[in-house]
Hints:
Elements: E1 19-20, E2 27-28, H1 42-45, E3 49-55, H2 62-80, E4 83-87, H3 91-105, E5 128-137, E6 142-153, H4 162-167, E7 177-182, H5 188-191, H6 196-201, H7 213-227, E8 240-244, H8 247-250, H9 266-269, H10 274-290, H11 294-303, E9 307-311, H12 336-345
Parallel strand pairs: 3-6, 3-7, 7-8, 8-9
Antiparallel strand pairs: 1-2, 4-5, 5-6
Bound molecules: guanosine-5'-diphosphate and magnesium ion (MG).
Amino acid sequence: MGKPTFRVASKGMSIPKSAKCPECGSSTYAVVCPSCHNKLPESTLLGKDMIISVVGSRDTGKSHFVGVIINELIERISVKYGGAMEGFDDTMSRYKAGAYQKLYMDMQKLDLTKSSVQDVNNGAYRPLIFTLKLKRKALFKEQIDSFTLVFFDTAGEDLNDEDTMSTVNKYICKSAGIVFLLDPMQFPAVRNQLDENTVSRASSVDWKQATRSDDIMSRVSKLIRNDKKMKSEAKINIPVAAVFSKFDAIAPLIPEGSTVLETSPHCNEKVFDMSDWHNVDSEIRSLLVEWGAESFISQVDVNYTNYSYFAVSALGMDNNPKEDRRIDRPRPHRIEDPLLWILKENGVIKPSKK
Ligand SMILES: Nc1nc2c(ncn2[C@@H]2O[C@H](COP(=O)(O)OP(=O)(O)O)[C@@H](O)[C@H]2O)c(=O)[nH]1
Ligand SMILES: [Mg+2]
């Protein structure tokens, strides 16, 4: 219903810089997706785009994770690594009017995301697209590398339905990394150690209504295998960050002196700190064992070659939403860790020497 679109013959491997509209005859420089007609960023055409998929069952904190990490990337993370993050097309205005307005201006928690089947404007149909520009020292000069970061925020129930998943959520198969969110309070061993009020303020739905995380994991893995025409025993090589959300709520259960309680060191060091990463990964693995979640550990292991465990809080310590939905301005804890690890795995930022 918008502007006309048309196909142009490619010149060998390259896409022409401009083309004449067959209807009105004027030249255009805009390149759109042949399927959905959304505009495509230049780095997509150069093959430097990175889709970061955020998946997890309902109520695991996906929307809060995406809403907060974008602001952190713009204001803090990109700057620390000597770069900048810009919105593509109308992304910035959509972000500012959506999650940013609610979390940072109204200071309220977000509503549950609507299914793509009911609402085509949700985060799965129209992802938020950013260009991340980073400085790199080349031989004699400084070079700017630019990458497209695409954030898809899926409604949990869309991952329940295999048909919706294989059409709407196809992007997952093309991901440079998957952030797989887990709500630690879905484990009875964790829930039973916390008071009911803490648990209910840290959720939007009753935990009994949420799909089990291992179900989502097996569906996502099946979708990727089908798309890549892989055998059912073959492991998938997309990096998977298995991330515990809402860490603020469970922090009192974490042994004193644990690395995961400290603030994230990566940005200040301007590299990816390998020893910090190692400590956090092994602390979370042992917590999973303590919580009786070995089946989840082995499920990740049989499906993926490259995975790692993290814990984050989007809202931050002592910022569990009040009964009336109010929150303080988000002051996230370790929210950058899974994303920086994915960037490190894709060769965008460097690992520390040890
Ligand atoms: N305490 C705490 N609660 C959180 C945090 N992130 C999300 N929540 C809670 O979890 C609920 C679901 O989060 P949401 O992002 O909507 O989950 P989604 O369904 O996966 O998108 C929210 O309503 C909050 O109550 C967090 O960092 N800390
Ligand atoms: Mg959501």
